[in-house]
Amino acid sequence: AEVSFFMAGGVDDGKTYSWLTAAIYVFNLIVGVGCLTLPHAFKEAGLLLSVIFLVLFCIAALITATWVVEAMASANALLIHENKIKDGAVPTSLLDEAYVEDHEGVADRLLSKRKSESLEKFAAAPVEETFHLDNKVEVGHMALIFGGVWAQRLVLIVMVVYLIGDLAIYAVYVPNSITSITGSFSLGSWHLSKDGSAYYVFLTLFVIVVTPFCFFNFQKTKYMQYGTLAIRNIAFVVMIILAIYLIGKGDGSSDIKIADVTNAPTIFGATIYSFMCHHSIPGFITPIDRKRKMTLLFVVDFLAIFTAYLLLGGTAIFAFKGVIPSTYTTAFEDQKDVPTWLADVLAMYPVFTLTSNFPLIAITMRNNIDKLVPHSWLESNNGFPLRRVVLTLITVAPPIAIAYGVHDVGLLVDITGAFPGMGIMYGIPLALAFMGRRKVMRVFGSDIKHQFCSPFRHLGWNAVIVVW
């Protein structure tokens, strides 16, 4: 099975799209369930501290995103160069022995899947032009090209840990959203409390419904993507408008924290989780028809996302008194000025979107685990897909177990963002950029400047991200 680092929501129709469409798509890809914990984090950490973190993480996300773009261009150039070596166009002596030994067969496995016209296009091109983004090379493949098998395995492990947290967040968010609507209730003589047994009942129903779909192989269709994105954006705008409406009614909060450093970890984890998209960058930049202004694309997107997050978190802390729930879509349930039906719709919208996404994320995680487990360990017998069944169970068991033990979405977002999220947003892009540049210098004899070079190439920027 091919390693897939492209999360649910990827393009699956094989077509290209314009720069503007790409900007809209990237915005929709990044603005997901993670941002729904920002209002809670804003309230706990204070307005000033939250804005400072939001600005810093936005800038850091921009820097590391450009590194992933540069690394992908370098990976494509190295693959084309290796293909020339195999065809005899370049003497093998131009490469050191370590490169040849570590990467023997990489070009065969990756380039064999590319269109022949793409290879012909770059066969006689100058070296600078072989740095391109026309062929998708996922972050795991980049790690294999730049650092060998162990680098790829390390990336896989980080991804798997992140996906466990991601699936756990989904599994906790859904029953919490349902219980916010049902409250405590009774089934005959069995009383189900909102904060206790009702949660476990709905979590169990969620597991029963979604787990069977995790055993299959499928991709989300573009129509499901469009529907999910439309519902998400409508809900996002409605929540901001309702918060502004509540502020205008004069019932909002007048006790606004400025900065509470004791709650800095809360805004830290939530912000990382809300800006993280770096593992999906290869998937959404490849179909863009004009790729010359990739840095500008990310600047526009991250500015728009920063503005959206600031509106979401800023309006929330002024609109609600007391503690804002980490599942922000449920915060409107107890507001007398918000129609009950609208509050219920907002609370239920994540139930449908996250339930449909859970199997897709689980399949992605299973495919990543498949690369870590030797095929000799689990072999299918008599046509029974033993490997798929066992790996699927290994995939869904940890996040479901976590969901039964932890009810707090905010806590899971903090942990997922602060640990594996740091690896995806900072560690992996930094390592790929650094190793990629070193590999380019070893293979081509110089640090080649090409059109996809990051404007943040100086080692000083690497140091800034490490320190941060």
What does this structure look like?
- The structure is a single chain.
- Helices cover 65% and strands 1% of the residues.
- The protein has helices at residues 19-30, 38-45, 47-86, 97-102, 106-111, 116-123, 139-147, 149-182, 197-210, 222-248, 264-275, 281-285, 294-319, 340-372, 386-405, 409-418, 420-444, 459-467; strands spanning 185-187, 190-192.
- Strand 1 (185-187) and strand 2 form a beta hairpin.
- The protein is globular, with a radius of gyration of 23 Å.
- Residues 1-13 and 90-117 have low confidence and may be disordered.
Number of strands: 2
How do the SSEs run, as a string of H and E? HHHHHHHHEEHHHHHHHHHH
How are the strands of the largest sheet arranged? Answer: 1-2
C-alpha-based Rg, rounded: 23 Å
List keywords for this structure.
468 residues; mainly alpha; two-stranded antiparallel sheet; 18 helices; 1% strand; disordered N terminus
Concise synopsis of the structure shown:
With 468 residues, the protein is mostly helical.
Give the topology, please:
Layout: H1 19-30, H2 38-45, H3 47-86, H4 97-102, H5 106-111, H6 116-123, H7 139-147, H8 149-182, E1 185-187, E2 190-192, H9 197-210, H10 222-248, H11 264-275, H12 281-285, H13 294-319, H14 340-372, H15 386-405, H16 409-418, H17 420-444, H18 459-467
